[in-house]
Amino acid sequence: MRITRLALSAVALVVTLVGLTAGAQGRYDPAAAVVAQKEALKVLAFLDGTWRGSAWTATPDGGKHTPIQTERVGPLLDGAVRVIEGRGYDAEGKVAFNAFATVSFDPATKGYTMHSYAMGRSGDYVLTPSADGFVWEVPAGPMTIRYTATVKDGKWHEVGDRIMPGKEPVRFFEMALERIGDTDWPAGGAVPMK
């Protein structure tokens, strides 16, 4: 009987402490979260629009794949999320590469995440904005794939490097794009109520 009272007292104490902790943290405010997300995503507004240029990717046989690369970027959810689509066209105009990503901000962690889909794979990756671009990384076992973008004066230059501990980075990707226009994508063309 004494063990039961002691156990009940411990459970009551835990429930009380959890309630006090939750109350001290306050209730989740979705409106405040959306405002914080929209404000945080403004740092990437310089990407909005359509882009075109050259790119190269190292191939397994030591050669280079050299598509014409395009990107289109725009806000969604009233600016709380940024959406990116990349397409690489071969010499015949066929889409040889297609990628899609969303970039979001979590007010609780103060961190940016890129959710990327490409070549049958998907994942969530940390994205770090910089004064004139951004960096995002893909962990790949002992290796890290790091993409570093610089965007200024209507030019988007991005490189991809394979980084192994104790070794020099190996560049396997590079693109040089120019901004070619505005776009209302993806928000434009929404289905109307009637």
Task: Report on this structure.
The chain has 194 residues and is α+β, with helices and mostly antiparallel strands. It has helices at residues 2-25, 30-41; strands at residues 49-58, 64-65, 68-76, 81-89, 95-106, 111-118, 121-130, 133-140, 143-152, 155-163, 170-181. It has one domain (30-181): Beta Barrel (Lipocalin), CATH 2.40.128.20. 19% of the residues lie in helices and 51% in strands. It is globular and about 55 Å long.
Q: Show unreliable segments.
A: 10-23
Overall pLDDT score: 90
Tell me the distance between the termini: 67 Å
* Percent of residues in beta strands: over 45%
Strand order of the largest sheet: 1-3-4-5-6-7-8-9-10-11
Secondary structure: number of strands = 11
> What is the CATH level 1 assignment?
Mainly Beta
CATH superfamily: Calycin beta-barrel core domain
Shape: globular
Q: Find the structural class using helix and strand composition.
A: alpha+beta
- The helix fraction, in percent, is 10-25%
Domain module count: 1
Number of helices: 2
The biggest beta sheet is recorded as: 10 strands, antiparallel, barrel
Core attributes:
10-stranded antiparallel barrel, single chain, alpha+beta, 194 residues, Lipocalin
